[in-house]
Automatic annotation (TrEMBL):
Organism: Wallemia mellicola
Gene3D superfamilies reported for this sequence: HAD superfamily/HAD-like (3.40.50.1000), Putative phosphatase, domain 2 (1.10.150.240)
Gene Ontology MF terms: sugar-phosphatase activity
Protein name, entry field: Glycerol-1-phosphatase
Any single Pfam family the record assigns to this protein: Hydrolase
InterPro entries in UniProt: HAD-like_sf, HAD-like_SPP, HAD-SF_hydro_IA, HAD_sf, PGP-like_dom2
Amino acid sequence: MCEYQDLPVKGVLSDMDGTLIESTPAVEATWAQFAQDYPFISLEDVLKHSHGVRTHENMIRFCKLENPDTIASEAKRFEETILACAKKRQEQGLNGLVILPGVNELLDQLNDNHNNWTIVTSATKVYASAALSISQIKQPESFITSENVVRGKPDPSPFLEGAKVIKQSATDCLVLEDAPSGITAGKAAGAVVIAVLTSYPIDTIKASGPDFIVKDLSSVSAKWTNDHYEITVDAIDI
């Protein structure tokens, strides 16, 4: 481990699923249900490649859908099923949608003196709002969802738009991500990228080229000083 102190950034752009919220069990259960309707789906392939990608793009790629109305309705059904699976799991005493380690503490620090942070997610606004509510994360006033961009991650557009929301340049921002598509997008936007090892093996994350790798956000802290955050990272040596 190696600690980096006082890394200066003017804004923080965070992914949601897998970075702030653990949604994997509910997502896997949802794909298992969809595989019953689309029996050609390879669950191994979809679970390896779908994370961090917009839902409607996954409907096109893995469910082989072409009609725009069908894509939209199935994407909506997919996200509704995740929420339903999460609720059912929680009623059974299992993890549904839960906040990941270190998230509450870091968000408290980001909100302590300034609000120069927001969420940049591949999910829709309806799903993201519900997921944040279930996991008891206070929503930023404005954040970027799949509806806000023409091209999703790994294109840099989502993070470029996120930087505009907090009135900063992406090159002055820190991106928090867990997926290769998001890491690639953050780097392409010119941001410093911290990757968490909550969803993918370290070799996969390393290959995506983040600036820092941490176990989870308990290894990251922030302090507002004058006109910027000073970030401390307890990073894994890469």
